[in-house]
Amino acid sequence: MTHNSPFIIQGISMSRNDLLRRVGILCCNFFRNMAFYRAGRVNNLHIDKSNFWNTVNGNFLDICILEWLKLFGERNGKQSWEKAITDKVLFKSNLLKSLELTEDGFNLYVLEMRTYRDKFVAHLDYDKTAQIPHLEIALKSVNYLYNYLLANEEESDCFFDAPPDALNYYKSMLLEGQLIHSILAKGI
Question: Are 24 and 159 within 8 A, CB to CB?
Answer without folding.
Answer: yes
